[in-house]
Amino acid sequence: MGGELRPLVIAHRGASSEAPENTLAAFNRGLETGADGFEFDVHMSKDGEVVVIHDETVTRTTNGSGWVRDMTRSELTALDAGSWFDIRFKGERIPTLREVLGLIADRSKLINIELKSGMVIYPHIERKVIEVLSEFDILDKTIISSFNHYSLRMVKGVEPKVRTGILYMEGLVEPWIYASHVPADALHPAFYLVTPEIVRGAHDAGLSVNVWTVDRADDMKMMVTSGVDAVITNCPGEMINLVKEGW
């Protein structure tokens, strides 16, 4: 593989096997491991702030309860988003998109932002995310992904230059053909759907293949062998060590 890591190692919600997901602690840990980039999720607060959290509610990952959409930024950031993982992380907060990008933007080769636009539809979240990306001047190294492919179409309508990736977990036939109709620039399949033939078909169509969520060594090796472009993992340090060992 030469001196550069291939595929890219993307820390899933930060280094979320070592720190509470989608917190600055997890992103800092991802930087420490040498991850090439980050994947994380965004929702929108009641007062229109784009915030980084996976679930539609705060119940699982904070000491609070309720829907993200029903809480203001100040209410969200007042919650403890670390203690649930380990008491050492007590006081970690739900960060805003700007806070996360302020930490990782200059030190990432690839940033994958997942729009959580399914159970809850956030009006204009596509435009708001693109506005923040433009502030940081990182449109060229960002991919916006979503299970809601209509949302990805809206992203392209706002800013055609932004790359998009279709998230899916079904066995799609020739998914690169479907992606061209969205349109999208990348396939983001669950890793168990990936074969070398799928990767070749995507690459022949000019699409990248970025897979999720790969945490077992055998699966990491399989993804490398299949020729994917990026591996999204909760364990970026383990993936980096595996690649350094020759995989």
Plain-language structure description:
With 247 residues, this protein is α/β, with parallel strands linked by helices. Helices cover 32% and strands 18% of the residues. The protein is built from nine helices and nine strands. An eight-stranded parallel beta barrel has the order 1-2-4-5-6-7-8-9, surrounded by seven helices. Strand 2 and strand 3 form a beta hairpin.
Blueprint of the fold:
Elements: E1 8-12, H1 24-33, E2 37-44, E3 50-52, H2 73-77, H3 97-104, E4 110-115, H4 125-136, E5 142-146, H5 149-158, E6 163-168, H6 175-181, E7 186-189, H7 196-204, E8 208-211, H8 217-226, E9 230-233, H9 236-244
Parallel strand pairs: 1-2, 1-9, 2-4, 4-5, 5-6, 6-7, 7-8, 8-9
Antiparallel strand pairs: 2-3
Q: Specify the biggest β-sheet.
A: 8 strands, parallel, barrel
What fraction strand? 15-25%
Tell me the structural class. alpha/beta
- Find the count of extended strands (DSSP E, 2+ residues): 9
Number of helices: 9
Radius of gyration: 17 Å
Keywords:
disordered N terminus; alpha/beta; 247 residues; eight-stranded parallel barrel; single chain
Task: Please provide a brief summary of the model.
The protein is α/β, with parallel strands linked by helices. 32% of the residues lie in helices and 18% in strands.
